[in-house]
Amino acid sequence: MNKLLTLLIAVFLFNCGVKTQTKSTTDGAPVFQDLFNTSMTEGVQCYRIPAIVTAPNGDVIAAIDERVPNCGDLKYSYDINIIVRRSSDNGKTWSNIETVVNFPYGQSASDPSMIVDEVTKEIFLFYNFMNLETEKDIYYLHVVKSVDNGKTWSQPEDITPYIAKPEWKNDFKFITSGRGIQTRSGKLLHTMVNLNSGLHLFGSDDHGKTWYFIDTPIQPADESKVIELTDGTLMINARVNRAGMRYVHRSTDEGKTWTTTPAPELIDPGCNASIIRYTDTKDGYDKNRLLFSNAKSEKGRVNMTVRISYDEGVTWSEGKTIYEGSSAYSDMTILDNGDIGLFFEQDEHTKNPFVYFSLDWLTDGKDVYKKARK
Question: Does residue 174 form part of some domain?
Answer without folding.
Answer: yes
